[in-house]
Design a protein that fits this description.
Elements lengths: L8 E7 L8 E7 L17 H14 L2 E7 L1 H7 L1 H14 L7 E5 L10 E4 L7 H24 L5 H4 L5 H10 L10 H14 L1
Parallel strand pairs: 1-4, 4-5
Antiparallel strand pairs: 1-2, 2-3
Helix pairs in contact: 1-4, 2-3
Length: 199
C-alpha cells in the first residue's frame, strides 16, 4: 500500500459496472490513520464472508464513509461509465467530512470541486480505495439478494445480475424485468427479438 502524506484522503470505488441488472454502486471512505484495518484488499480478491466482516470494521473505524448509487434508468440514459462517475460523485458528496484529496480507482474521475486523481488498480494500492471497493461491493450484493426476494424466479442472490448462463436462461424463460439494463447488448437483443416476434 502507498504511504500518503495528506491526512484526509477519500478513497472512491464502484461495484457493478458489468452486470445486466441492478444499479451501479459507489462508496467513498476516509480512513482514520490511527485505526488501521488489517486485511484490506481489492474486494474482488476477497471471499464474501471476508468482505462482510471488513465492511463492519470499515464502518466502525473509518473517520467517515458514504455509499451511493446510480439507477438502471440512469445507466440506460447516460451509459454505464457516466452513471458510474455519477454514483462516485454522489458518494463523495455524501461524506460528512470534506476530504483534502480524492483518489479514485481506475482511469477516469468524477467531476468534483476537490483535487481528484485516478489510480489504475488503486483498489490494490491505496487502503482507502480498497475500503471503498469493499463497501460498494457488499452494498450492491445486499441489494441483489433483496431483488431475489422480490423476483424469486431470478437467482440474483447467486449471479448478482452478471451475465452468466443461468441469468441468460432466466431472461429467456421469464423475460426482462424493470431492473434489467436495456442498453446492455444481451438484454437489448432479447427485447428486440421479442418485439419482432410480437409484430
Amino acid at each position: 500500500m502507498y504511504e500518503l502524506a495528506d491526512k484526509l484522503i477519500a478513497g472512491v470505488d464502484e461495484a457493478g459496472r458489468g452486470p445486466w441488472a441492478g444499479p451501479v454502486v459507489a462508496a467513498a471512505v476516509i480512513l482514520d490513520p490511527s485505526k488501521p484495518i488489517v486485511g484490506l484488499a481489492d474486494s474482488k480478491k476477497l471471499s464474501a464472508a471476508k468482505r462482510e466482516s471488513l465492511a463492519v470494521a470499515i464502518k466502525k473505524s473509518a473517520l467517515c464513509w458514504a455509499v451511493a448509487s446510480a439507477s438502471v434508468a440512469e445507466i440506460d440514459s447516460l451509459n454505464i461509465l457516466q452513471a458510474s462517475l455519477l454514483a462516485m460523485q454522489r458518494a463523495v458528496q455524501g461524506l460528512s467530512i470534506l476530504p483534502q484529496r480524492v483518489l479514485v480507482d481506475g482511469n477516469r474521475t468524477p467531476e468534483l470541486s476537490l483535487p481528484v486523481q485516478a489510480i489504475v488498480k488503486g483498489d490494490s494500492k491505496i487502503a482507502a480505495i480498497s475500503a471503498a471497493s469493499i463497501l460498494a461491493k457488499v452494498e450492491r450484493d445486499q441489494m441483489m439478494v433483496a431483488y431475489h426476494r422480490q423476483y424469486p424466479e431470478f437467482s440474483f442472490h447467486r449471479h448478482k445480475g452478471y451475465g452468466t448462463r443461468l441469468h441468460l436462461a432466466e431472461i429467456e424463460r421469464f423475460g426482462v424485468l424493470e431492473i434489467h439494463r436495456r442498453s446492455f447488448a444481451p438484454v437489448k437483443r432479447f427485447c428486440l427479438s421479442k418485439d419482432n416476434k410480437a409484430d
